Each structure stands twice: as C-alpha cells, then as structure tokens.
C-alpha cells in the first residue's frame, strides 16, 4: 500500500512507515473477517488487493507457523429437521414477502445477515450415501429425496416411479412418456450438429427430473438443467441426486446467472414458460444466453397443436393463434425456423449481422440493445426488453465456427482477449498448472477419478482449468466465477464446459447434499474483505453430501482458522503439502461425516 508523505520526509522514513501500516491494516481486516467483525473499507482491499496483502504477510520476515491466524474452537448446533431441504435464497417460508406477478417470489431472495442460520442442516431420516454413477442415473434412494407429490403427479408420465426403497427413473417425460432415447434420436435427426461435436453445451429450462440432460451425457453434450423450487418438489435435487448437472433458477424479472452466448442449444419440453407474454422478454433472455447459430428446441404447446389441442383443454383456433404469435416473435428476434417433426420444433439464432441491423429503427420492437447494456452482466441484473446483437469482431464464436468437441476444450477462444491479461499462452500455462495439481489431488484424495465422486464444484475457477484436467474422469464440474472477479465465465463456456456466476457472501442456488467434492483456491483470501468465513464454510457444509470431500487450497496463514471451524462442523480434516511442497500454501483435505438429527433417534 502507498501512503501519502510530507514533502520533507526522507525516502528511508517513508519505507519505515509503510511496513508497519501495511501489516496493521492487513491484520485488522483479516481479524474483522474471520471473527465476524467490521467491514474493511481500505481502498486497495476493495480493489481486490487482499491477495497481495496476504502474500506480504506470509512472506514477511516475521511470519512463521506460530503466528498464523488463530481463532477459538467453535461448535455448531443442528438445525431443526424441518430444514433438511433448506435453500436459503429460495426458501418457501419467505415467499409471502415477495410478489407473485411473473413469479418473482421464486427468484433469489437471500435472508439478511441477522436472519442467517448458524446451524448444520440435517439429512432426512434414513438418508444413505447416494447410489454411485452411472447406476444413479437410473435410480436413487427414496429417503434421500423423500418427495411423494411429484411421484403421484408424474408417475403416469414415467418421470419416476417409487419401488420399495428406491425411486426409479424410466426416462420418460410429459412430451416423451415412451422414453427420452427415442425423443433425442428424433431431435438428432432434425439437428445433425448434435452428432458430430458441433453442439456441446445445452440448457434445459423446466427440466423435470433431468432425463433429457441425462441422456445427452452419453452423446457428448453437457446439459445444465434449470428449474425453480416450486410445487414440482425438488426437480433440481432429483437431477443432482442422479449425478446430472443442474441448478436452481427461473426466468422471471432477472437475467439467468450466465454470460451472453453461453449455450449451443436451449430446450423446453412443456416447461410452462409463457414465451409470448410480457413482450417476449423470456425469449429475449434465451436469445441472450444462446450462442449465435445456436438452436432453440420446443416441444409441447403450441407445437403439433392439430393433434394435441384436445389434451391441452384448449381449442384449435387458440393454439393456431399462439403458434403464429410465437413464430412472429421469434422472427423479430432473428430466429429462423430450422426443422419441425411431430412434437418437436427447432429454431436457429441467426449469426447474420444484417438481420440485427434491421432492428435499430425507432418503431421496431424488440430493438437491439444500445451500448449501455452490458450483455454479460448477469448477477441480479434485470431482464432487458431488447435484442443482444452478436459482436462483429468475434469470427469464431458461433455454433459451426467454434472448433468441435473435444478439440474446443484446448483451443483458446476469442473471448479470452476480453479478460485482463488473457491470451492463448495464459490459457496454456493455466491448463498445464492444473494438470499437475489434479494429479497431486488424486494422490492426496484417491477417490477422485473413481465412482465415489460424481458432482464436483470448483468454487472460484478462472478458465475451468481443474475441470479440463479432470475431463476424462467419470465426473462433471460446476465452474463458479465470482460476480466480483474478472469475467472469465465466457471462456469457460467457449471451451465446452458449464458454470455460473455467484457471490459467496450468499448461499448457492442448490439443495442441500448435492455435491461430492468442493474445491477452492484462495477464496477466503480473495473475498475476506466482503464475506464472513464462517458463513462460507457453513454453506459448503449445506451443499456437500455426507461423506463428501472438500479440498481447500489456501495460504498457511489461514489454515488453522479454517480447520477450527471445519471441526466445529463435524468434518474430519488434515493438512497436506502442495505439489511444490512449499510452506506459504497448504491444502486442507476434509471429509464431511454422516450424522443424523438427534431428535430422530436415527443411527447409521
């Protein structure tokens, strides 16, 4: 840190003054974070320089293991069993506080600090370690997701069936009750790009139990299933229990937490989203997150209305009008019809800049967004009633111009040049570093690469390096990019991986017990000026499965404090050296224990 000096102060005096002030500021900020104290507002820290300050503290002559950050031992009580499926930012207990128009109550509404829970979320009575992949795609333990409503309502459509102690997933859906395989086969006939690696990333809006996304995994397409927490009971929890990528979310008044041009394909199978209402603003959001040249697939009303309308309790005239309105709206957004057969219709987002240039007139709706609208801003950002025009300088970022999978994983995408310091060489170095680290992680945590670990989260990735290093293992990685850090998430998607923006001062958009492995690198140092370590660790405990693992790679300075809190959460932890065997940085390897709420009298 630089301090302003008097004109008559000597260079040596300034040097002597800077050192203690720097250490004092760092100490105060570190203690305020780890002890839940004051918010550090020092300008350099707010600009993200806490990492450098932490590095200074660790490398200073005074640093040793003896003066590492220490906190008093702590224990956390159990939450009530009523909180076994607690999702803090989408909590049904708080829905009445928010409006019902456009389903805004289903969006993220996190509790204020004074309402945050400081307890451990218990598993359901009779919880068992999840069935391992790939068998988990076909079945899961009923007691792990004990929801009867969705079973009673959707079993006739073959979403799932309860048999003994298990839920079985026959692979059906509302629009494909005879099986998802035949449904996807027809889709691939309509979209040949699904067969050759051109289409790699997809989003399924209103995913049900994620059978569509689960089927596509075997076809080399990585699908992120999206659904709100609503009366369908735990669609996302079912998906993750099966080992299929999923996240809580709803298209309502705010953008989804993804950058523009993220997905090669978007899918809606009778997802009940009113696409043509509110000026088509929900379609505009699909347009934003869909890559130029990408495909939007719709099955359900009003597609194939001539043969389906009677089962939809409507008239043929109403459905014909609905389809015409939908087609007009899609055309106005530079979508073109691509293929239609039976219950499936496909549109393609245009890459032709000429189409978007026609949307600039004063009386055009929807018009193209002006330069003040940031296309990638997507963390609590309101939906915009305008069309995001493709960037003319990007020549190799549309579907069809990107390298095909799996080649695209290792080729630097164009959008890496938008990242400060980003380049092809930077990506190559990052990948090389994470390959070495991933090999070391497998030595200190041999479960990585086996069927014991399926759902993985990299809590603060840059380019998705860990996910790339583990690409051949039977797992998938949710790549999380901080909403306060450099915007590297477009690069993650361009490489053919999936992820989301998030702020770790808040709860993540998922159910409890949904990840097998959580990995973080320097997160507590990077976010210490904003977030309380206690709450971040409690959130990690909420989303980590019992007997799941955490790899916490941090400065040695904070390791003891982290381990103290982890023990208070009933985790078993031990320290390991990094691959370089240095002293400045260590890896805390933790495993969450399986326990049951005391009031249930359950034992393992």
Automatic annotation (TrEMBL):
Range of residues in the leader sequence: none
- Compartment(s): Endomembrane system; Membrane
One Gene Ontology term of the biological-process aspect is: methylation
Example GO CC term: the record gives: membrane
Pfam families per the UniProt record, alphabetical = Methyltransf_29
Record EC number: 2.1.1.-
Q: Where are the transmembrane segments?
A: 21-39
How does the protein's chain sit in the membrane according to the entry? Single-pass type II membrane protein
Q: Which domain of life is it from?
A: Eukaryota
The record's listing under InterPro entries reads: Put_SAM_MeTrfase, SAM-dependent_MTases_sf
Entry's Gene Ontology molecular function annotations: methyltransferase activity
Q: Which family does it belong to?
A: Belongs to the methyltransferase superfamily.
Q: What is this protein called?
A: Methyltransferase
Which organism does this record belong to? Gossypium australe
